[in-house]
Amino acid sequence: MEKRKCGKSDTEISVVGIGCWSFGGGSDDYWGQQDQQAADEVVSAALDQGINYFDTAEGYNEGRSEESLGQALKDKRDKAIISTKISPSNTEPETLRQHCEDSLRRLGTDFIDIYYVHWPITDRSVQDAFATLMDLKAEGKIRSVSVSNFGVQQLREAIASGAQIDLNQICYNLLSRAIEVEIVPLCLEENIGIVPYMPLMQGLLTGKYRSIDEIPPNRRRTRHFQGDVAPARHDEPGAEELTFDIVEHLRQIAAEEEIAMAQLSLAWVMAKAGVTSVLVGARNRRQLEDNARSADLDLSRELIARLDDLTQPLLDALGPNADYWEPEASRRTR
Ligand SMILES: NC(=O)c1ccc[n+]([C@@H]2O[C@H](COP(=O)([O-])OP(=O)(O)OC[C@H]3O[C@@H](n4cnc5c(N)ncnc54)[C@H](OP(=O)(O)O)[C@@H]3O)[C@@H](O)[C@H]2O)c1
């Protein structure tokens, strides 16, 4: 499997990365139950496919995702590049240090390869947070300082702190292209790699949902969908008809090309400028193996342009706000 360099660092990660948000999940969590055996299978199938990159966060299932990933990588730590994330509310220097130690313990490792700030810091000192991250890097506890969901203003602030920012992990898929407007150009200029999350739009881009009602409610919170239906947090009208019209066209194109829709969707993101590794969630070995095949696809320039043209009206409708959960006035990514 192809590996790509993480920004200015020497770390190389596979173009397909495994999102471990569902690991350690119980029945009340966002993704529902995922037992350790399934997590072990996903991790070992990933390693078999040449995937070396695994992403988690302290906030996923109250630390149980980190624990589950650590358990799945027991005795295999040297084969993996692990990223985890500090929540922005935990970025005061002493708290950050303590939370980094807690993540190390749950992961069962003595260093974190890539440490992301999960969302932009709004009510604490950005300078102090990044200075602490640089100290942790100098001490060998973390190997890369990276960010997630940062917009251009926030990226500039992080860079101004003096930290080397390697990656920006952010929502990017055929139906969510806002980052192309301002964020990708800045990342290209600054050599900050893009790590797209939700590349399958949490299942919608696999083609498995034929109508809005089939999508689990918590996967319908984004601005693609009507804002006045719980648990959405925005107040926008959404673009449901256009979204589903595009999904149906994608289904047809995938059939014409004889490619599974999930693989087509992943290969499109992988082909985009500035992308380092596409983070995709998998509940079991079968999904993992299906998704890993996308790395072997080399989409033609014509096909990529066709997919760009098809999805452009949705980018126009939802606009350049890269926070797909919050309306313009309260967007977190700026
Ligand atoms: N930084 C952030 O703020 C942030 C936010 C979101 C996600 N992330 C990261 O990005 C990772 C990926 O995003 P995501 O998990 O939200 O969304 P995703 O990768 O778009 O969707 C993953 C889900 O789609 C379904 N799926 C995957 N492959 C499939 C296949 N081949 N066929 C049918 N269904 C399939 C599975 O759920 P079901 O089988 O249950 O349908 C899977 O859990 C996360 O795990 C996390 O590490 C980061």
Outline:
With 334 residues, the protein is an alpha/beta fold.
Describe this structure in words.
The protein contains ten helices and ten strands. With 334 residues, the protein is of the alpha/beta class. The protein has an eight-stranded parallel beta sheet. It has a two-stranded antiparallel sheet with strand order 1-2. A hairpin with a 6-residue loop joins strand 1 and strand 2. NADP nicotinamide-adenine-dinucleotide phosphate (NAP) is lined by residues 19-22, 55, 118, 148-149, 169, 197-203, 206, 208, 262, 279-283, 287, 290-291. Residues 19-22, 55, 118, 148-149, 169, 197-203, 206, 208, 262, 279-283, 287, 290-291 line the site of NADP nicotinamide-adenine-dinucleotide phosphate.
What is the helix tally?
Answer: 10
Rg is 19 Å
**Strands in their spatial order, largest beta sheet:** 9-8-7-6-5-4-3-10
Which stretches of 5+ consecutive residues score pLDDT under 50?
none
CATH class wording of the domain at 12-207 and 263-297: Alpha Beta
Helix content range: 25-40%
Principal-axes shape call? globular
In total, the number of strands is: 10
Largest sheet: 8 strands, parallel
Ions and ligands: NADP nicotinamide-adenine-dinucleotide phosphate
- Looking at CATH, the homologous superfamily of the domain at 12-207 and 263-297 is NADP-dependent oxidoreductase domain
Structural class: alpha/beta
What is the architecture of the domain at 12-207 and 263-297 at the second tier of CATH?
Alpha-Beta Barrel
Q: Could you state the order of secondary-structure elements as H and E?
A: EEEHEHEHEHEHEHEHHEHH
CATH fold title of the domain at 12-207 and 263-297 = TIM Barrel
Distance between the termini: 34 Å
Strand content: 5-15%
Give the mean pLDDT. 97
